[in-house]
Amino acid sequence: MKKVFVFVSMVILVSACASAPTNDAAVPTNKTVATEPAPPAMTEADATAKEKAIWEAIKAKDYDAFSGMLAGDHLEVLDDGVHDKAASVEGVKQFEPSELTFSDWKFVPIDKEAFIVAYTVAQKGKFQGKEFPLTSSRGSSAWVYRDKKWVAIYHQEGPVRTAPAMPASTAKPAASPAEAPAPPTPGPDAVANEKAVWELFKSKNYDAFATMLAPDFLHVETTGFYDRAGSLEGVKMVDASKAELSDWQTVKLDNEATLVTYTLKDPKFAPKGERLSTIWVKRDGKWIILFHHGGTPVIQPSPPPPASAAPTAGASPAAKAPATP
Question: Which candidate among 36, 94, 170, 262 keeps its CA 20 to 30 Å from the CA of 206?
């Protein structure tokens, strides 16, 4: 989701007109500066309706409508890769949902011209011409206001999983303030910010990490939805000392919000890799984390079938999910 912020200052112009000689031909006195009005405040009901409309367009095979709901720089994060708008539009043509049931809706405003929705969707239908059973996924999308309309700029999905019983933590206590290095100061570079967060995990400096989370922070995992407190508690159970990060991509939502997506590999909890995404926002002059979606498993996309062969179903339930914004 993206937005454009327009800042107009008339102070200098007024000063210049006051001091310059009167010359209507050179300095029109009735000149006005056009500004695009901000969109109406987004409500949770409206946000939910926009997200459902995308799924309904897919169900109706209205691919033009689907494409029109996506931003030009839209990114879709699925188990088989990170797709741009063109790939998403082509991908949904292989998906034919017959049943869609939504639950667990979450709504987080980013600013006046961007918002996040997250939810669980149970879906049934066909993928590449073959039936697939009822499958549940955790989904999230970010929307932005551009050219006087709302468009989806990001979407991610992952399969629903049951949270395992958490063993007693074997991690060493976090370093005390006297021992811990000074936490980094996040800036507009979302990739650098995200790398710094993982360095904090590796050093178990959870207090510094806590300072980077917005009060309304939302964390989406295959096991559920977590607020700031729940996410802080969960991260303490993970040993990130051998985590490896790669495949970085970013998309700028507006001047004060950027999404970064990347791949995580860890020999213990993500040996085959997981896709993660984070939205950083600037509030009160400070860059902080508003949203994170993790746990989308990495799979290798299935090779296309021979031209003479019948199409086969995707490699995993997540691959059968629609490529929504």
Answer: 262
